[in-house]
Each structure stands twice: as C-alpha cells, then as structure tokens.
Design brief:
The complex is a heterodimer of chains A (about 80) and B (about 260). In chain A, about 85% of the residues lie in helices and about 0% in strands. Chain A is mainly α and about 80 residues long. The radius of gyration of chain A is 16 Å and the shape is elongated. In chain B, α3 crosses α4 and α6 runs antiparallel to α7. Classes of the chains: A mainly alpha (about 80), B mainly alpha (about 260). At the A-B interface, α3 of A face α7 and α10 of B.
C-alpha cells in the first residue's frame, strides 16, 4: 500500500467515525452523559482535522471542543441542577 | 394550521433544501482541489516574507491580523459580558451569605450538600499535572512562529492548569491563584496590547498591524518573525485570562447558589 492509499483509508475511517459520533451525540438524552459524549466527539473531530493535514485547527478543536466546552457545560449543568431536598 | 398542512409545508421546504444542497454540492471543486488564488501564493512567499515556519500563525497574526483582532474581541466581549451578568447575581447572594459569616468558604456554608474532600488519588496526579500543563501552554503560545500552534491554543491550555488546581484542591485555592481583578487586568492588557502593536506600526507611517519588528535571521527560530511572535504571546495572555475568568465565574456561581440556600 502506498502512502496515499493509507491516508485515504485513514481519512475515510475517521469520517465514518465522526458521522457515527455525531449520531451518538444527537441520540444521547441524559445531560451529563451527553457532555461526556460531546467531549469524545471533540476528540474525534480533532483527529479528523489532523488526518486532513490541519494540525493547527486540530489543536484548537482539542482544547476547546474536547476540554473547555464540556467543562463549561458541566458547570452550567451543576448550576441549574435541582438540589436534592 | 392543521398537522396535515404543516407536514406539507415541511415536505416542500425539505425538498427545496435537498435540491439546493445537491445543486451546491455539484458545483464544489473536487476533493482536495483548492481553487482559490491565495493558498499557493501564501505558501510560495510566507516563509520568505515573515521568517515564520508556522505559516498558519503568519496568516492569522500578520496577513489577516485585522480579522484576528476582531476574533479576539469576540472572546473578550463574551468574558466581559459573562462577568457582568453573573456578578450581578453574585451580589444578590452575597447579601444573604454575609449574615452567616463571610469568612467561611462556600463549602462550609453548604448545609444540605456535604462535599466529600478530594481523595489523594485525584489530588496527586492533578497537582503533578499542573506544572507540565503550564509548560505546554506557554510553549504553544511562544512557538506560534515555528509550529502549528499559537496564542489561542496555548491560552486555553494555560487556563486548564487553573482547572487542575480547582480539581486537586478547593475553589478557594483556585481563587487565590487567579483573583478576578488580576484576570480582568490580564485580559484587558492582552487584548489591548494586540491593538497597540497594530497602532505602533501606524505611528511609524506603516499600515495598521504591519510587521515592523526585525524578522530575525533564521526562519522558524523562536526569536524570528517580528510581530507574529509578539501578538501570539499577547493573545495567549488574553485567552488564558478570558477562559479562567469564564470558568471561574461559573464555578463561583455554582458553589454560592448551592451554598446560599433558598
């Protein structure tokens, strides 16, 4: 297999994974679980950008999509969650 | 509108969307074929013109630096707006907390929710990670001119170092390390310095954000690329402060609302 063919296989695999990941994110209903799935999806997107030769964007997606956004969402959920009386 | 009519409306709209989407899709250039004139031109000249091997940074902080100023101020405005909105609410709660004694931490005041102390198994790894995370953050922010990195990514990673402090210990330690006044100043200085670098070029009769500093001898060296490295550094400070501010405000809000009782 030449390098190009390897890259093609890799890119198609990651694209399929991202499509599957997006479906899982949309199908998840429980909020905390949704945030964790979203974080994993951010990681998948970062890998996608990396395989498409955009390491700069991959790094941004990794820091914001996989770490910062889930963190902010978790905090927001903790804020609005009803306290056990 | 009956459900039947609504379904018809949706069907027509959906059909229109599919048609337009396919039409647009057919007109796209082939996979991996970039038709624009700028990409090849930039790739040909960027390193020679800026001495930055991180060409993405050269584009972000030099060729289209003016756009990046706008992007930076999106984050700046978001953080400022967030602290304004949440600060007001916090003032309301603080009045109630005062009666119970301000000196207590939010944890102490919580009546119906005893938070367990952080276990050593969590505390040790997170504390051990703080140093490396700070190092990686600074490294990324300081090497925008040489690597696919930049102030934005480095800044976010720096902000997560503060989150590790919060995870490993307490909110109060996090707040002591990152007082709001200091964060406000750092954020404003980072954003302002970006604009000031652009104005410094204007003061010398050059276009706004023109790369007026010496470019250095070796492409890709840390000291090369003139204002690109400088702007990346300031963006790193701004982004780290903004993210720490946003997350800190949310943390404080969460803890105080939970502690304040209703």
């Amino acid at each position: 297999m030449t390098g190009n063919a390897v890259m093609d296989v890799l890119q198609v695999t990651v694209l399929v994974l991202v499509a599957a990941g997006a479906t899982v994110v949309v199908r998840t209903r429980e909020r905390v679980r949704l945030v964790l799935v979203l974080s994993a999806y951010g990681l998948l997107l970062a890998i996608l950008f990396f395989t498409f030769q955009a390491p700069d964007v991959a790094l941004s997606e990794l820091t914001v999509g996989a770490v910062a956004l889930p963190l902010i969402l978790l905090l927001a959920i903790a804020k609005v969650r009803k306290r056990p009386e | 509108m009956t459900p039947r009519q609504r379904r018809w409306l949706f069907a027509i709209a959906a059909a229109g969307l599919v048609a337009c989407y396919l039409w647009a899709f057919a007109g796209l250039p082939g996979f991996g074929h970039y038709p624009g004139p700028y990409g090849p031109e930039i790739l040909k000249h960027a390193i020679a013109q800026t001495n930055a091997t991180g060409v993405v940074s050269a584009i972000n902080f030099d060729y289209r630096g003016f756009d990046t100023v706008g992007e930076e101020f999106i984050l700046f405005t978001a953080a400022a707006g967030m602290s304004v909105v949440l600060r007001k609410l916090r003032g309301e709660r603080e009045g109630r907390g005062e009666r119970e004694g301000r000196a207590k931490s939010p944890y102490d005041r919580a009546r119906n929710r005893d938070l367990p102390p952080t276990s050593d198994a969590v505390r040790m790894p997170t504390l051990a990670l703080v140093g490396p995370v700070v190092l990686i953050g600074w490294w990324l922010a300081a090497h925008a001119q040489a690597n696919p990195s930049g102030g934005f990514q480095g800044g976010v990673i720096l902000a997560t170092a503060f989150m590790l402090v919060y995870l490993s210990g307490e909110f109060l330690a996090f707040r002591r390390l990152s007082p709001v006044a200091l964060l406000d100043c750092a954020e404003a200085l980072g954003a302002g310095a970006f604009v000031a670098v652009g104005l410094a070029a204007v003061a010398q009769g050059l276009p706004y954000l023109d790369n007026f500093l010496p470019l250095g001898q070796v492409p890709g060296a840390v000291s090369s690329s003139g204002t690109i490295a400088l702007i990346s550094f300031f963006v790193g400070i701004e982004v780290a402060a903004a993210f720490t501010l946003i997350i800190g405000e949310l943390l404080e809000q969460t803890l105080l609302v939970r502690a304040g009782g209703r």
